[in-house]
Amino acid sequence: MKPIGGRIMGIGAALTSALFLGFTPIFGKQAILLGFSPLVIVAVRTSLAATLLLLLMAVFRPTYLYIYPAGLLGCALAGMLNGIGSIFYYMALNRLTVSVGQLLYSLYPMFLVIWLLIDRQPPNRITYLRIGLAMLGVYLLTLTQSTQVDWYGMALMLAASIMYAIHLPINQRVLLDIPAPTVTLYTLLAMSAVVIPVYLLFDRSIPTADIPWWPVLGLTAVTFASRLTLFLGVKKIGGLQTAILGLSELLVSLLVSRYWLHETLSGIQWIGAALLGFSLVLVGFDQIREARLTRGGLLGWVQPPKPQELTWGPHE
What tens digit of pLDDT does each residue of 240-278 get? Predict the structure, then answer.
């Protein structure tokens, strides 16, 4: 595929992922308000999404189940980090409003930049500009009149944001030689291996029969769809560009909450929305390269095997 084609596909995948992810706090908060505990939510939605993808691949694309050992280890590490981050996210969402929670969680591009600098992958100048505009837009979007501060909930959400930022470059390494559905599957399985034991050890509550399950099922659907498109975006344009485009999920969350929960935006928030939108428009001027293998760095151990060692399975 030509670079321009990969770039367009990556941008489209990243924006599609953001569209699905924008519904995550809406469904999650609704499930919590209906009586689901945070650990039940994260365990059910992750395990259901992983099971659905495993069944679909086993029936329709069994060759996509192949993955080389270092890639499997990379997916396991990324999945464990993101699984822990998911637990922090829903525990924080139980204590914070959707807007405040999304503000803190949307700081993950900043944490990702720090990680990439450590991993010897510095961004270019226009990327820094886009991050600055996006962060300012995110801040303005989530300004509220409330003066109450839940420091514990904020700490949990920041921890979730950091975990999400770290797992992206790990998966980016694996995605260089493995299809996005394969990486999605093994990352979700690793997440399930973390969140299910935590639920069994620390919660084990079972929702009563009169509690509607539609928010959890909706959360499962957006998790399934957003993960596939997220990793396709990471594969084509890299983790940082996908993360910046992914900030548009905040716009989706605010628009959905406005019409679903009858919330409104203030003048300052509309300015923030405009800044975030301008940051997204600047993607057309950014020097985005398709993700490629870089030697060395903290993730240098995630390397594909030599061509003669690959005996079966899809390769891109």
Answer: 677 777 777 777 876 777 677 665 667 787 787 778 767
**Residue bearing tokens 């919330």:** 263
CA distance 12 to 199: 35
Between CA 84 and CA 105 the distance in angstroms is 14
SS3 state of residue 287: coil
The two tokens of residue 72 are 């499997």
Q: Hunting for tokens 């503000």 — which residue is that?
A: 103
Would you mind telling me the total number of residues written for the chain in this entry?
316
More confident residue, 99 or 232: 232
Q: At what angle do helices 108-118 and 239-246 cross, to 10 degrees?
A: 170
Structure tokens at 19: 């569209």
What average pLDDT does the chain have? Answer: 80
Residues of 204-234 as b/e, b for ≥16 C-beta within 10 angstroms? eeebeeeeeeebbebbbbbbbbbbbbbbbbb
Please state, in angstroms and rounded to a whole number, the distance separating the CA atoms of residues 138 and 270.
11
- Contact predicate 253/22, CB 8 Å: yes
At 153, list the tokens: 């909930």
pLDDT digit string, tens, across residues 266-316: 778 778 777 876 776 665 555 544 445 455 555 555 555 554 444 444 444
Tokens coding 268: 């300052």
pTM: 0.80
CA dihedral 213, 99, 203, 27 (to 10 degrees): 10
Q: Across residues 70-97, what is the average pLDDT?
A: 93
Coarse DSSP helix, strand, coil percentages of the chain, rounded to the nearest 5 percent? 75, 0, 25
- CB–CB of 66/182 below 8 Å? yes
